[in-house]
Design brief:
The protein has a single domain, classed as Rossmann fold (3-Layer(aba) Sandwich). Helix content is 49%, strand content 13%. A hairpin with a 5-residue loop joins strand 3 and strand 4. It binds adenosine-5'-triphosphate and magnesium ion. The site of adenosine-5'-triphosphate has 20 residues, from helix 2, strand 7 and helix 12.
């Protein structure tokens, strides 16, 4: 029998975040989980959108089940005992807080306990459906791995919110790199409170400010930050030309946020999604041969083959592949 320790070592955690709400995170978490399970992987999808838990809907499951809220309130239960079968082979579900209000305001010790226990779950892929925006909790779940997934549409506001999310994430990673309760931490928090006359705080600006106080710590913080390499996926695209923004987005991430990223997938807008939701059924049960199912399978396949390594030239590759696919479908 394979040991749990061994499987934890092999397990991939994929937190799904977005700057803007409603871009399709819960939809993707459920259906990417389904696709990975269909490709033979053991998957747990966990609802970490406290205050807005609705992942069960996309899986076609009732919201009556105990979940993370119950685990955090009743300190004795084990998280792994709350993992539920979904009716699909190899796909499991961990419910959020539908039964426990106000969990969105959980305190630090609860969050650390949850993160520790999530990392012990036994599966090949652990997919985390996060809340939108950059609350400390969401940022800390996203930081559970250096390779998180960010979902966005190509709309200007969605891209702007993505940049804000990543900037706040950078500040959080830098904050975590500082000695606890130190003068530096105080200085860092003070630098967030800028007067309206000052320039907007940038990642480079923050690191430079730190360097004037402690060069060594600033270097550690920078090293910690540049290790992160988020994977960006576009959703609800209507035409491949919308991806024309990709090169300027890549440059902005490098120049303004000192961040390398990979462009991992593009999912097209598809009315099948709405139909499956109206029927309260998982998408694969409504139409497993829809275009969106095909898009998600392509993404799942790419994740299995390429998730652990940096992609070369991912922006151009994604644009070319999406154009090819679109023209095959629409002539
Ligand atoms: N590719 C797609 N084509 C058509 N509709 C989609 C697509 N992806 C998602 N949707 C629809 O967009 C809506 C929002 O999706 P979802 O709830 O997954 O977003 P979210 O990012 O999880 O939102 P929140 O931030 O509120 O949790 C849903 O009605 C979903 O069915
Ligand atoms: Mg959601």
């Amino acid at each position: 029998m394979k040991s749990k320790r061994n499987s934890i070592f092999k397990r991939t955690i994929i937190p799904i975040a977005s700057g803007k709400g409603g871009v399709g995170k819960s939809f993707l978490a459920a259906n990417l989980g389904t696709a990975l399970a269909e490709l033979g992987k053991t998957v747990i999808v966990a609802d970490l959108d406290f205050g807005g838990s609705n992942l069960h809907t996309f899986l076609g499951i009732n919201n009556i089940h105990p979940g993370i809220g119950d685990f955090l309130r009743a300190r004795t239960s084990r998280l792994e005992d709350l993992v539920l079968p979904t009716g699909q082979n190899k796909l499991f579900f961990l419910a959020g807080d539908v039964r426990s209000p106000f969990l969105a305001n959980m305190h630090h010790a609860q969050k650390m306990r949850l993160i520790y226990n999530l990392k012990q779950l036994d599966c090949e892929y652990l997919i985390l459906d996060l809340g939108s925006g950059s609350s400390y909790n969401t940022l800390d779940y996203f930081a559970m791995t250096q390779l998180g997934l960010i979902l966005t549409t190509t709309e200007h506001t969605s891209i702007m919110n993505l940049l804000t999310f990543l900037k706040h994430f950078a500040f959080r990673v830098i904050e975590h790199s500082l000695p606890k309760n130190s003068f530096l931490e105080e200085k860092l928090r003070a630098s967030y409170n800028r007067s309206v006359m000052e320039d907007v705080l940038t990642v480079r600006g923050l690191l430079d400010e730190l360097a004037t106080i402690d060069l060594n710590v600033a270097q550690i913080a920078e090293n910690n930050w540049v290790r992160y390499r988020p994977r960006i996926v576009f959703n609800k695209c209507k035409e491949p030309d919308e991806l024309d923004l990709i090169n300027s987005l890549e440059n902005t991430l490098i120049q303004n946020l000192m961040l390398r990223s990979d462009f991992f997938g593009c999912l097209f807008d598809d009315p099948t999604v709405m139909i499956s939701l109206k029927q309260r059924k998982a998408l694969y049960k409504v139409n497993s041969s829809s275009q969106i199912s095909e898009d998600i399978h392509l993404l799942a396949d790419r994740i299995i083959r390429l998730w652990k390594q940096p992609l070369r030239n991912s922006a151009d590759l994604l644009v070319n592949n999406s154009q090819k696919l679109y023209h095959q479908r629409h002539g």
